[in-house]
Amino acid sequence: MDIKKVLVMGAGTMGSGIAQLVAQNGIQAVLVDLRDDILQGALTKVEKGMKKRVEKGKMTEEQVRDIMSRISVTTDMGTAVAGCDFVIEAVLEDVKLKQEVFSKLDALAGEGVILATNTTACSISEIASAVKNPERVIGMHFFNPPVVMKLVEIMPALQTAPETVERTRAFAEVLGKEPVVTVKEGIAGIASRVLAALLNEAVWVLEEGIGTAQDIDRAMKLGANQPMGPLELIDLIGVDIHLAKTETLYSKLGDARYRPCYLLKKMVAAGYLGRKAGKGFYDYSQDPPVPTRL
Ligand SMILES: NC(=O)c1ccc[n+]([C@@H]2O[C@H](COP(=O)([O-])OP(=O)(O)OC[C@H]3O[C@@H](n4cnc5c(N)ncnc54)[C@H](O)[C@@H]3O)[C@@H](O)[C@H]2O)c1
User: What does pTM read for this prediction?
Assistant: First the structure.
């Protein structure tokens, strides 16, 4: 499979990272979003991230220029999709929006072009139901940040053709990733679902007063060989993002393992969103961060 040009829909956290990953692997990336300022912001963010690596001697200025020259941006999906061999959608996590985007993509993308979604927890079969050629729709879930994380979870919808699965797996390998292909579709795939339950449990243990935030994190680092403690990890992901994920899993699976602890709701209401807000389970205004009084 020879992929020369990839359309990335949505230039947010994931879309911009996926475009960088594609360009780093010598493939043209076209980023599409609703407004020029969002697209320019995405380009600046990608370039800034790589310049930091230049300062650390891990990349050259020339490599940065080379990669940036392979990323183009536009608000016009119609023009962008022409000549693309593969599409990765990374717009907001809203199934109706994704269905709308896929229905347009399906009408515009050439025959045989795979339409992949980076959704975390939307039903891929539901997204695929909005298009005329659902056999080319598939889940291709990158992890944040896409340039760093080795895993890509590939999740076929009920309608996905086996050939689409194999071509997507091959493409993930071209991008230097180690794909895991799920046997069938399940809400949030494997890693996100298991992680959500684990992180949730850590918040319950804190809420029940069994251990302090620091001790819960220390216990999981030292006893379960986790590189980061679960509460530190929620702060990194964003308390609001974690809460939204467990709420989705709880409502879709109806399983008590995902029932979000009230503490998470209080924290979001108070603006304790984690690192991005300077405060979550830990207060980042101090170095090293200290546990927040919750
Ligand atoms: N953030 C993560 O850690 C993460 C990890 C894996 C998967 N995901 C999934 O990736 C997807 C994107 O998440 P994100 O964190 O990058 O979101 P984000 O909010 O950072 O970016 C979404 C972008 O989509 C754009 N957009 C909205 N409607 C559009 C349209 N019709 N056409 C083009 N662009 C449109 C928005 O303007 C925004 O820039 C979601 O489905 C999310 O669940 C996120």
Answer: 0.92
